[in-house]
Amino acid sequence: MRKIITSFLYKTPLHLLFWGVVWLFFYLFFSSGSNNPQFLFWFTTILSAISIIASYVFNYKLIPNYLITKKYWLFLLYTIYTVIFTLFGVLITVVFGFVFFFNLEFKTMPALTKSSSVILVCVFFIIALTSGFKILKYNYKSVEEKKNLENKFLQTQLQLKEQELKFLKMQIHPHFLFNTLNTLYGFALKKSEEAPEMILKLSNLLDYILYQVDKPSVLLKNEIQHIDDYISLEKMRFQESLQVNFNKTLFDNTTQTPPMLLLPFVENAFKHGTQINGILNIDINLKTTEDYLFFNIKNTSKKNKESAKGIGLENIKKRLEMLYNNQSELSISSEENLFIVNLKIPLKDG
Questions:
Q1: How far apart are the first and last CA of the chain?
Q2: Dihedral-angle region of residue 337 (phi above 0 means left; psi in -120 to 50 means alpha; beta otherwise)
Q3: Mean pLDDT of the chain, nearest integer
Q4: Residue 283 φ/ψ, nearest 5 degrees
Q5: Nearest-10 Cα torsion for 266, 314, 217, 223
Q6: What is the CB neighbour count within 10 angstroms for residue 242?
Q7: For the segment 12-39, what is each residue's pLDDT rounded down to a tens digit?
Q8: In sequence order, what DSSP letters do the residues of 109-175 get, joined into one string?
């Protein structure tokens, strides 16, 4: 209610000013050839009243209720009614001057005030001017509302994207921890002397998973360090039955990458890898250039189809799509006794 009152108080002076200018225009225009100020006053006032009524009918009824809502036939019908009203009003105005101010002597009337066509042009010009302004104002408002809706839609999409990405990370954490704790459990059963070192490395990994993974990006060298820790944990478990080669070539130590993006590939290789001739072979190659990161991992496996279904890989595919759209390249393939993953992503420099 307060907003309506404020709008009314703001608009009323502007409307009064505009119609005052219209009244003055009519008065000066039709004063040509006339020496009767009283007649001009009433003639101009009546024309202004007709213009006001017709303009407000268009601006506050016909345009918003019929033209904007695309009810074109009703708009045309009521426009015809309004035009008829205007024609009738102009005719009555001419007759009013003819009867009350010129004593039924038509020839004595000023040329402009007895020309219905000139009067109609002036009135319809005012109606067209106000209606055109109303339509332009509506179009501007519609564009602004459309932009606001688009911004809200994009903001909602971004929030959903962030929530989905967070959910995907949460899915990775239990999966990764489950496999790592199984390794530690095996050492505890054996009462191995390497268990304390294993717990220390696991604590570093937990710190990375619980606290660093919520960041949008981390240093690539930190991701590599945690991959090394994970490999060390697995080496303790597999002992002589594991052969891992991890080659790294970094273009820049300040390179950044999303957290937990590469580690699940390594985890998947251990989880689904199969020993061939008593050895599980895993080859990891990581290389960065100025613009891209290249990651390749191969592991011996006899269960290629099962390897490709790991929840970690599915989550990574979704994360890559959300993070890089079509700018990343991920290929997963299998050869005889070999499972291969190739990844290419654009770099995020620090």
A1: 53
A2: left
A3: 78
A4: -115, 125
A5: 0
A6: 18
A7: 888 888 888 888 888 887 777 667 777 7
A8: S-TTTT-HHHHHHHHHHHHHHHHHHHHHHHHHHHHHHHHHHHHHHHHHHHHHHHHHHHHHHHHHHHH
- Cβ-count burial of 104 within 10 angstroms (0-12 exposed, 13-18 middle, 19+ buried)? exposed
Does the structure show a pLDDT above 90 at 97?
Answer: no
Residue 221's Cβ-count burial label (10 Å; 0-12, 13-18, 19+) is middle
Encode pLDDT of 163-217 as tens digits. Answer: 655 655 555 556 556 766 776 777 777 776 777 777 887 787 777 766 766 677 8
Q: 280: which strand partners? A: 242
Hey, how many other C-beta atoms are within 10 angstroms of the C-beta on 98?
17
Under 8 Å between Cβ of 293 and 326: no
d(C-alpha 89, C-alpha 52), whole Å = 12
Average pLDDT over residues 142-166: 71
φ and ψ of 335, to 5 deg: -120, -175
